[in-house]
Amino acid sequence: MGKDEFVFLLVGLKWTVVLSAVGFVCGCLGGLAVALARTSDIKVLNKATAAYIGVFQGTPLLMQLFVVYYGLALVGFKIDAWIAVAIGLTLHASAYLGEIWRGSIEAVPRGQTEAAKALSLKYASRMRDVILPQALRISLPATIGFLVQLIKGTSLASIVGFTELTRAGNMISNQIFQPLTVFAIVGLLYFLMCCPLTIFGAHLERRFAASTR
Amino acid sequence: MTYSSDAQADTMITLDHVEKWYGAFKALHDVSMSVRQGEKIVLCGPSGSGKSTLIRCINYLEPHQKGEIRVDGILLGHQAKAIDAIRREVGMVFQQFNLFPHLTVLENCMLAPMRALGLSKAAAEDRARGLLERVKIAEQAAKYPAQLSGGQQQRVAIARALCMQPKVMLFDEPTSALDPEMVKEVLDTMIGLAEDGMTMICVTHEMGFARQVADRVIFMAEGAIVEQAPPAEFFSNPRHERTRKFLGEILNH
Predict the structure, then answer these.
(1) Which of B99, B198, B211, B245 is deepest in the core (most CB within 10 A)?
(2) pLDDT tens-digit map of B76-85
(3) Domain holding A142: CATH number?
């Protein structure tokens, strides 16, 4: 495998990183909204977000990407493959992160909300200053774990014709007929992205645990 | 905010025929009482008698379904504005302390004055340090709650509530979760507060505290007020059989 092929893989890697980052950042914003709606007292919001989470947890990511990619085209939106994939990943991540964070918010003891209310803190401050910082700590292992899943999930974008790392590997492999070498490198590149995250997550967990002890 | 026309100047809290249900279970049964400014009330009764529920209704941690609750003339309706106005005047101390574990002692005390009263950081810190001094725990300001003993945590919780400069303090079994040797430091703090003229309602089984501090002891059973009297009379001459039985159980163990 020559230098050109390797550079081609790196370009694919760049798109994998971009997709993961967009999916995660937008998914965090969406997930926060979903988690807050899911834990609110407003019944309509509650039910709507429960249904949303149910749909996205109950169907394969690949199918979700198909639906967004072909569905948006069908109703007349002509968008790039990567935007369609980014939207699909965002919707997917919002549902999962929303559910992870709902659980974390509910895991914060009730007394915390009561103390905050008794101190006449309003909803926004109760959430921002009291509940969410504690929920974030509780959710950290699951959140990092999901981010790793999401990075690997971007490989499905190759199926709708978007050239990220996996598809780049596939193309190179078809050119130089060394599938084992190529996919070993592709796998190593994924590993180099995911493994530090896992270690970073464990580090954060220890640091948070130490500060409350 | 609704101000009652006939509110007496020195009445701080009134409950008028208050009723509360949890589903089909009636937790409060036609409770009426009033508390004067500066008065110290001890609420006691067997577990499940509704005493915690009663004080939790006063700052709307639990909504009541019938009757009227007024604090400092403000009618506690179900609108956010009145609830907020009342919570700013009523401090509360919980059995489980409920300090915010991710914030230091000082930050615990500064949060609400900054967020709810709009104090500057410097002013909030000033106030917090002053009150931590008052509960004799100023040197722990930089620590996290989990690094303190139960008694210290509860004193921080008292300081945190006082930072809002409330007119009324509610205590929900403040010493029940403490090891015996830590009960005194918390009670001493509460006695100090009482001596400074704070209006207080304390749910507690500390009958020594009741004798020493209370202007009135109220005994509840099955969601209703059974009897109320000044402590001397309450302990020496309880009128109801139910009260005698309760006092027999908690005083002779």
Answers:
(1) B99
(2) 877 888 999 9
(3) 1.10.3720.10
